């Protein structure tokens, strides 16, 4: 029973994180019809973008969004 509760909690948190990521990208200006592409780009590039970053916490996330804005302008048109 405990394992199932933990698994459900992980599924719930994963869902919530996905929703927050979508909301953040939409708020940043990504067009709704390009949201899936933006999410893939975000996930695929986050480690590389932050590899030499000195930013921490929220500022790391904002750095990734700014990178996407600069290098993937087509997502915002």
Jot down its keywords:
77 residues, mainly alpha, 3 helices, globular
Q: Say how many strands there are.
A: 0
Provide the gyration radius in Å. Answer: 15 Å
Strand fraction band? Answer: under 5%
Largest sheet: none
Unreliable spans: none
**Shape estimate:** globular
Name the quaternary structure: single chain
Q: What number is the mean pLDDT?
A: 95
Q: State the separation between the terminal residues, measured CA to CA.
A: 48 Å
Describe what this molecule looks like in 3D.
Helix content is 74%, strand content 0%. It has helices at 2-28, 35-50, 58-71. It is globular. The model has no long low-confidence stretch (mean pLDDT 95).
């Amino acid at each position: 029973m405990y394992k199932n509760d933990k698994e459900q909690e992980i599924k719930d948190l994963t869902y919530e994180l996905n929703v927050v990521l979508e909301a953040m990208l939409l708020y940043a200006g990504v067009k709704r019809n390009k949201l899936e592409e933006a999410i893939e780009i975000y996930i695929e590039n986050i480690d590389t973008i932050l590899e030499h970053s000195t930013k921490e916490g929220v500022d790391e996330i904002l750095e990734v969004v700014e990178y996407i804005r600069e290098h993937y302008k087509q997502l915002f048109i």
